[in-house]
Write a structure and sequence with these properties.
Layout (H helix, E strand, L loop, with lengths): L2 H12 L1 H8 L3 H7 L16 H12 L3 H9 L19 H26 L4 H26 L14
Helix pairs in contact: 1-2, 2-3, 6-7
Length: about 160
């Protein structure tokens, strides 16, 4: 889905005028954000919208911190899709599954140690728990993508694109 389509869908939920009023922008600007924009066509009716600009910030800086911040504002967290090596990937499903279980076990051990020492999880301990959780989510995502791409299929030399 293109950025203008995402914005149009979001705006449709409350109405462009209500969204524009909340953002203290003109309805015309929000309508333009909800239309396809073409940098090469000066007569195109759409305008570069905030989603396009956010994507530019990520591309130019190479940092996903702004995306993570936005996800946090929406009540979640950003987890990058893993980079899977091309044809050199030779993983065993059982080994990868065991790695996930081990990482989950480490996370549980971290939580247990945090509570055992004084019955509470302190701020620095919660940071360590967060790091362990983020690593576990990334590993699980890598495993899921590998499954989707057919890495563990009977004919793993013919990987499928997701």
């Amino acid at each position: 889905m293109e950025s203008y389509e995402v914005l149009r869908q979001a705006a449709d939920g409350i109405g462009v005028k209500a969204l524009a009023a909340e953002l203290r922008l003109s309805s015309a600007m929000v309508y333009k954000w909800c239309q396809e924009s073409n940098r090469d066509d000066p007569d195109a009716s759409g305008a570069r919208n905030p989603l396009d600009r956010l994507a530019d910030i990520v591309r130019v800086t190479g940092s996903t911190d702004v995306v993570n911040w936005l996800c946090h504002q929406a009540g979640g967290f950003f987890v990058e899709n893993p980079d899977l090596p091309g044809e050199s990937l030779n993983l065993e499903m059982l080994t990868e599954t065991q790695k996930l279980v081990e990482e989950f076990s480490r996370l549980l051990s971290t939580v247990t140690r945090s509570i055992e020492d004084d019955g509470f999880i302190e701020k620095d301990e919660s940071k360590h728990i967060r790091q362990s959780w983020e690593q576990l989510k990334s590993s699980a995502e890598k495993f899921s993508v590998a499954c989707e791409q057919g890495v563990y299929s009977a004919n793993s030399n013919s990987r499928q694109e997701p």
